[in-house]
Amino acid sequence: MRNLSLILALCAASAALAACSTPRNRVRVVSTPYADGQTHSEPVNYNGRNYRVSFSYRPAFNGYHVVISAPGRAIGGTAGDRAIIEQIAKSTVRHFGCPDSQKGHIIPGSQRHANGRWTMQARCL
Q1: Which of 34, 13, 47, 26 is nearest to 98 (CA)?
Q2: 8 in the Ramachandran plot: left (φ > 0), alpha (ψ -120 to 50) or beta?
Q3: Are 63 and 107 in contact (CB under 8 A)?
Q4: pLDDT value for 99
Q5: Going by fewer Cβ within 10 Å, which terminus of the chain is more open, N or C?
């Protein structure tokens, strides 16, 4: 019985040490329903305006390539437009592509505005 107690104590200590050595801020592998690489589009209404969010999973960076346009109008390129578009992209990726309550995050520096639409990369974290 004494040996059993010692073995259990050693197992508990080993588990505690292993947990301490695990990195906290690591990127989770996306378990996406869109692993086929096809582009998927969703209509989004934000503050009374309609947008079209197209996204495709890219295994090279473990995330999504996102394109946001607005049917019938061009989206502006100001900082305010960018903030709105980022919120739309994060929300859409979280809702349609992220598993297990993960949140959508925009990869810094990936946002581009051209021809009245925005492109960016997003990940589930």
Answers
A1: 34
A2: alpha
A3: yes
A4: 81
A5: N
Strands (DSSP E) along the chain, which ranges? Answer: 40-46, 49-58, 63-69, 104-106, 112-114, 117-124
Q: How many CB atoms lie within 10 A of CB 110?
A: 15
More confident residue, 37 or 31: 37
Average pLDDT over residues 78-91: 97
Q: Hey, what are 7's tokens?
A: 């073995």
What are residue 15's phi and psi, to 5 degrees?
-65, -40
Specify the residue for token string 């947990």: 19
How far apart are the C-alpha atoms of 93 and 124, rounded to whole Å?
8
Residue 30: the pLDDT is 45
Instruction: State which amino acid sits at residue 86.
Output: E
